[in-house]
Design brief:
Elements: H1 8-23, E1 37-39, E2 45-49, H2 52-58, E3 64-71, E4 87-94, E5 99-104
Antiparallel strand pairs: 1-2, 2-5, 3-4, 4-5
Length: about 100
């Protein structure tokens, strides 16, 4: 038994794909690459897709664009004691196709 992402929708899809492989109607394994994940802290961290290192490793370095930005979370709009740019976001884009490879915030 492989314990991966313990999210119900992921487990449902993995179970369906396992059943299809066992019945011989498919050979496709479960792809966990684009399963979003998060860490619940006072300021949450979440990501989906590839890391910057993996995106560059899987594609030509010149074809990966990295966008950085800062923002103020919605729940902080009513708090005067918080900075306007306390959160960070990074988006990795494959330049030739404009496909988002990774999203980190």
């Amino acid at each position: 038994m492989c314990i991966r992402d313990r999210l119900t929708p992921v487990a449902i899809k993995a179970g369906r794909m396992l059943a299809q492989r066992m019945m011989g109607t498919s050979t496709e394994p479960m792809d966990y690459t684009n399963v979003p994940s998060t860490v619940y802290t006072p300021l949450e961290y979440g990501f989906c897709g590839l890391t910057e290192e993996d995106a560059i490793k899987n594609n030509a370095k010149d074809s990966v664009l990295v966008y950085h930005s800062s923002f103020k979370p919605l729940e902080w709009n009513f708090l005067e004691s918080r900075e306007d740019s306390a959160c960070y976001i990074k988006v990795l884009v494959h330049q030739p196709t404009d496909k988002i490879l990774g999203f980190h915030y």
